[in-house]
Design a protein that fits this description.
With 383 residues, this protein is an alpha/beta fold. The chain folds into two domains: 11-244, Alanine racemase (TIM Barrel, Alpha-Beta Barrel), CATH 3.20.20.10; 255-353, Lyase, Ornithine Decarboxylase, Chain A, domain 1. 30% of the residues lie in helices and 23% in strands. It has an eight-stranded parallel barrel with strand order 2-3-4-5-6-7-8-9, surrounded by four helices. β8, α9 (207-212) and β9 form a beta-alpha-beta unit. α3 crosses α4. The protein binds pyridoxal-5'-phosphate.
Length: 383
């Protein structure tokens, strides 16, 4: 069946971003490529082998399911780390395959030790510290108890890492909270050393922390959004550009998303376009219908706001975004026809639409929009 749109992944863009990240984190730090959320919508099965070919050799995911998909996409034993969910019945697969994982509750620690003993294969664990996000992580109050347990089960548990996650490093408004998190983490590390347990890898930094708080980079950086060519938000980008005195956007977007015009029609002045009355034609208009809607991950929030490229020009969404299609205003373009290319994200001619330029509703719009791209839009690798 023909798909109504396609996603392209650019190898040269990814290489460029990896060079940028490597320069930022230095030569010694392990770069873990965060590919949760279906590789931020890029598609695990397509993105992971591509990233591997570009030199990435550590992957982080949210769940055991994603770890399984990454594992299937790789032909060797490249390290995989689970930062979130593992069901009890998945633990055996995880340990058997040498996948490492965050531990943030006693149950999981016990289940890991038990299954590792049964498999006669040690579990590679990363102790997650609760430093202030209040999501997952061992509070420092219970740390001694946890360390005692680890010591007792030392044969079955390898403490591969000590980690935490920052609660909003992209925004200066959270400065004090982040600094406090950093210090709680460092104290926990010291306590571990005092206890005689030395984690192999200290890691705390995501993309935003890597840019804004370089001291948090440590032995490994868990990088998601930057590798795909986006900054976590505008603030992080401006911070980087002013501090480094660069004038040009330093990354390249890996993803492009393209579709084509499926219908063109004229609309008389005074008519409404689409459902309801949110768009009134103030003059005679011509609209093109694109077969992409909120069901394809193009948010309804972009009704009357989003932009696509046709004939190398920006055209704006007219009316509400529907489930499977949207209308764009092509009144000022000559000769738009059915079948003409419409770029939703990416370049056409001289112009480019980055995900962020969709709108300023939310700093998180990059993450959300990318992650919502449906898995069944076909992905292709291009140079
Ligand atoms: C998602 C995630 C990251 C990566 O975040 P980016 O902002 O995309 O770099 C790092 N660490 C953890 C624990 C995460 O959940």
């Amino acid at each position: 069946m023909l798909n109504t749109s396609q996603i392209l992944l650019s190898k040269s863009a990814l290489k460029h971003n990896l060079e940028f990240i490597r320069k930022t984190i230095g030569p010694e730090t392990i770069l873990s490529s965060v590919v949760k959320g279906n590789a931020y919508g890029h598609g695990i099965e397509q993105y992971v082998p591509l990233a591997k070919a570009c030199g990435m050799d550590h992957f982080s995911v949210f769940s055991a399911n994603e770890a399984y998909r990454v594992h299937q996409s790789l032909s060797d034993s490249t390290p995989i780390m689970i930062m979130g969910m593992i069901d009890d019945d998945q633990m055996e697969w995880v340990i058997q395959n040498g996948v490492s994982f965050f531990v943030f509750e006693k149950d999981r620690l016990e289940s890991a030790a038990k299954i590792a003993r049964k498999l006669n294969r040690p579990a590679k664990i990363h102790i997650e510290i609760e430093s202030g996000m209040n999501r997952t992580g061992f509070s420092t109050r219970v740390l001694t108890d946890i360390l005692k347990y680890i010591q007792k089960e030392a044969k079955h548990l390898i403490v591969e890492g000590l980690c935490t996650h920052f609660a909003g490093a992209e925004s200066i408004a959270n400065y004090h909270r982040i600094k406090k998190q950093e210090s709680i983490y460092r104290r926990a590390h010291k306590r571990m050393l005092d206890f005689g347990i030395a984690p192999q890898l200290k890691h705390t930094a995501c993309s935003a922390a890597t840019i804004r708080y370089p001291k948090t980079i440590m032995d490994m950086a868990r990088i998601g959004i930057l590798q795909y060519g986006f900054f976590p938000n505008q603030e992080t980008l401006i911070h980087y550009m002013t501090k480094q005195k660069v004038l040009e956007y330093p990354l390249r977007r890996v993803i492009s998303w393209k579709s084509k015009v499926m219908n063109v029609k004229t609309v008389k002045r005074g008519e409404f376009i689409g459902y309801g009355t949110s768009f009134l034609a103030n003059s005679d208009m011509k609209v093109a219908v694109i077969p992409v809607g909120y069901g394809h991950g193009f948010s309804r929030l972009l009704s009357n706001q989003g932009i696509v490229l046709i004939h190398g020009q920006r055209v704006s969404v007219a009316g509400t975004v529907n489930m499977n299609m949207m209308s764009v205003d092509v009144t000022n373009l000559d000769g738009v026809q059915k079948g003409d290319e419409a770029v939703i994200i990416g370049k056409q001619g001289e112009l480019e639409i980055s995900v962020a330029s969709f709108s300023d509703f939310s700093d998180q719009v990059n993450y959300e929009l990318l992650t919502r791209l449906p898995g069944d839009i076909p992905r292709f690798i291009v140079d």
